[in-house]
Amino acid sequence: MNQFRVFLLWLALTFGLPWFVLLIWPTLKMSSIEPLPVYELDEKGKKVVDDNGNGNIVSYYPPLASGSKTAGEAIYVREGCAQCHSQLIRDPRVAMDSYKREWGPVFDSMAPQETRPTNPRDYLAEHHPVIGLRRLGGDLSNVAFRYGSREQMHLLLYDSRIAQPASNMPPYRFLYETRKIEGKGPSLRALALTGELAPEAGYEVIPTGDAEALVDYLMALKKNYTDPSRPVVAGAGAN
Amino acid sequence: MISESTVANQSNDGTVEDHLERAAIDRSTRLPVVFFLTSGVAWLAISILLGLIASIKQHSPAFLDWDWLGFLNFGRVQPAFINAFVYGWCFQVGIAVALWIMARLSRVELKNPITLIVAGHLWNLGVTLGVVGILAGQGYSLEFLEFPKFIWPLLFVAYSAITIWMVVMFQVRKRSDAYVAQWYILAACFWFPWIYLTANMMIHVLPIPGIMKAAAGAWYRSSLIYLFFVPIGLASSYFMIPKIVGRSIYSYGLSMVAFWTIAGVGAWTGLQKFLGGPLPPLLTALSGSAAILMLIPVVAIGVNHFMTVRGSHSLIQYSPTLRFTFFGAIGFSVTAVGGAFMAMFSSTTSFTIAEDGFNMIALYFFFSMMMFGAIYFILPRIVGCEWLSRRMIQLHFWPSAYGAIGLGLWLVVGGIWQGVSLETWDSSTISAAGTSGSFLIGKTFIWISFILVSNVVFILHFLMMLFRLGRRTHEPTLLGHPHTPHATQLAEGGAGA
Questions:
Q1: Nearest chain B residue (CA) to A119
Q2: Which of A119, A129, B66, B239 could cross-link B213 (Cys pair, CB 3.0–4.6 Å)?
C-alpha cells in the first residue's frame, strides 16, 4: 500500500512538472495580455490629449471582433476549416512563412515581401483556437487581401474551382440558397455564376446568413496593422 | 512493491489449481471484456468507412458531392473519422485488454462488473453523440478534441468509473509485487484523466487566451499518444511476449529505465508543432528535445523484447499473438523514431500530412497491432472456442502489416515533400497542395487495398468467435505446424494457457 503511494507520487511528480511548465505557467503569464489601445495622433505623431491628460482611443490592437465576425468564426470552426487552413505566420528565422508571396498583404508582387510574424496578442481577436491543424490550403492570416471583394469570396466558398481549377477545397454550396427570382430582377446579393454552375433560368443563388457571417469573418482577417508593443524597424515588414 | 522476482516470474506453473483459477478469472471478465471488445470492433468498422470517405475527399472533393451530403466535406468527416478511431476503437479495445491483463496478473476475479457495463454504455453514448455532433456541425478545431463541448464530462465520468476497477483489482491482488504490465496500466489510468481534464478545462471552461488553447490541444494529442496509448500497448507486449515464449522478461533494469523515461519525458512533448510560432520559444524547444529523448525507451524496450524472444524467434511464425505483438513492438520503435525525426525537422513537418502519418504509425502500426495480438490471445479464452481459420488470421496480418508500414511511411515522406514545397517562398500554395495530392491518392489506395481488406477479414472472424462459430478444440489456431512438440506447446501460450 505504502509502496503504491510512493509509485503514484513519482507518477504525479514526473507528470506534474511538465504539466506546470508547459501549460499552467505560460497560461498564467499570457492571461495578462490584453488588447492595446491605439490613440489618436496629431500630425507630428504625438498623442492628442484632453484637459485631463487622457488620450483619445481610436481603435484597439488587435481589432476586436464582434457580431457577425464572431458568428463567422463559429462557422469557420464548425465546418472544420482549421483542418486544412492555418492562421499562423512563423518567425522568419525558423520558417519561410513570412516570405510566402500569397500569405502576406502584398501578395501579387514579384519581389519577396516580409510579412509580420503573428504574436500571442494577434489571437486575442478570436474566441476559438483557429491556428489550424494542417496546411493543405493556404495560410489565412491575411486572406482578406487576397480577395478583392465579398463577391469573390462567396464564389470561392460556393465552388473554389471557379477561380482555381486545381483547387482541392470542398464546395460549401449548402451555405447558399437557390431560390426563384421574385420582383423586378435578381437580388443584388445573387452570385454571378456562369456555365455549368449557373442556376436554371428564373432562379438565383444567394448566400444564407451563415455564408455572410463567414465572409464577414474572412474579410476581417488582416494582420498588417502595426504591433504597437514592438518598435517598428525601417524597411522590415510590409506594415 | 516492485521487485526483481516479479519480473522473473511471469510464466506460471501449470498445476491444476492454477488452470482452474485462470479459467475462473477469465469467466469473471467475460461480460465487460466482450462488451468493450465488441463495441470497439464496431467503432473500428465505422471509423474505417469514415476514414475511407475522408481519404477520398481529401484529394477529390467531388466524391459523394450532393448538396444534401454537405456534412461529408473533409472538414467534418476527417475529425469524425479520427475521433471515432481514437475514442471508439483504440480506447475501448485498450480498456478491454487492460482489464483482462489486470485481472489475470492480480489473480483476482472481476466481481459484479455492472458498473463497468454502465460506464461502457455511457462511453459509447458519448462517442456516438460526439461523432454525430461533429458531422452535424458542432465540431471543434483541435486535433483529437473535435467532439462538441458537452461530450467531455460524459467521457470523463465514464472513464473514471472504469479506472476505479483497475485500481481496485490491483489493490486486492494476491501477490504483493507488481508486474511491469501492471505499472504501465496503472500509470495510464492515472495520467489520462489528468491529461483529459486539463485539456478540456483549458479549452472549454477557463477564459484563457486562444493561443494557450491551441497549445493545450497540441500537448493533449502528444500526451495522449505517449502517456496513454504507449503504456497500454506496452502493457500488452510485456504480458504477451513472456507468456508465449514461456520465459521471464530479459532485464528488470531495462524495463525500469524504459518505464521511467516514458513517464518523465512523455508529458513534455507536443508543443514542437508551434516551433517559430507565437508561443515562448523555450517551450517549443523543450518539447522538441523531449520527443527526441523518446529514443531512450526505444532502445531499452527493443533490447528487452528482442532478448526475451531470443532463441524462440521461430515462434513468431506460428503464434498469431506473438506475430502481431512483435510487429507492434517494431511499431513502437517506429513511433518514437518518427516522433523524434519530426521533432528535429518540425518547422518543415508541422502542419503537413506527415502528422497524419505519425497518427497512423502510433495508432495503427503500434497500438492497433498490439491490440490485435492481445485479442487473438484473449478471445478464445473467454468465449470458449478457438479461432476458426488460420488463413483468415494470415489475411488479417499481412495486409495490416503492409498497410501500417505503407500509410505511416508514405504519409511522412509525402509530408516532407509538402513541407519543402511550403517552405519555398515563391512556390504557390496550390503547387504545395498538388505535391501532397499525389501522396493522398496513394493513401486512398493503401486504405482500400490493405486496411479495409484486412479489417473486413478480422471483423468477420471476430463475429464468428462471438457467435461461438470457432473450432471446438483445445488446440489453439497456429499459423503453421511447428516442428517440435516443445515449440507447439510454447506457441500455444507457454506453460500457462
A1: B278
A2: A129
Q: Could you identify the residue written with the cell 488470421?
A: B393
What is residue A238's predicted lDDT score, i.e. its pLDDT?
Answer: 39
Strand partners of residue A57: A39
Tell which wins on pLDDT, B486 or B29: B29
> In CATH terms, is domain B4-491 a member of 1.20.210.10?
yes
**Cβ <8 Å between A79 and B428:** no
**Cα–Cα distance, B131 to B89 (Å, whole number):** 13
Query: H helices within B60-113, ranges in order?
Result: 74-83, 91-106
CB proximity A195 to B under 8 Å = no
- Long-range contacts, B152-157 (Cβ 8 Å, 24+): B152/B196, B152/B200, B152/B204, B154/B122, B154/B123, B154/B125, B154/B126, B154/B129, B155/B87, B155/B123, B155/B126, B155/B127, B155/B130, B155/B196, B156/B193, B156/B196, B156/B197, B156/B200, B157/B119, B157/B122
Domain A59-219 belongs to what architecture? Answer: Orthogonal Bundle (1.10)
Q: Where are the domains of chain B?
A: 4-491
Query: What's the confidence (pLDDT) of residue B7?
Result: 39
Q: Which residue has the cell 508582387?
A: A109
What residues pair up with A176 in beta bridges, in sequence order?
Answer: A207
Q: How far is B213 from chain A (nearest CA, A)?
A: 6
Output phi, psi for A176, to 5 deg. -125, 160
Name the residue among A27, A169, A171 with its Cβ closest to that of B65.
Answer: A171
Amino acid symbol at A130: V
The number of C-alpha atoms within 13 Å of B73 and in the hemisphere containing its C-beta is 26
How confident is the prediction along chain A (239 residues), in pLDDT tens digits per residue?
Answer: 578 899 999 999 999 999 999 999 999 988 888 888 877 777 777 777 777 777 778 778 787 777 788 899 999 999 999 999 999 999 888 888 888 888 888 766 677 778 888 888 888 878 888 999 999 988 999 898 888 889 999 999 999 888 888 888 999 999 999 988 887 788 888 888 888 888 888 899 999 999 999 999 999 888 877 666 554 444 444 33
Each residue of B464-496: pLDDT tens digit?
999 988 888 777 888 876 665 555 655 555 434
Q: Please report how the helices B230-245 and B91-106 are oriented relative to each other, as an axis angle in degrees rounded to 10.
A: 50
Distance of CA B120 to the CA centre of its chain: 18
> In terms of C-beta density within 10 A (0-12 exposed, 13-18 middle, 19 or more buried), how is residue B6 classed?
buried
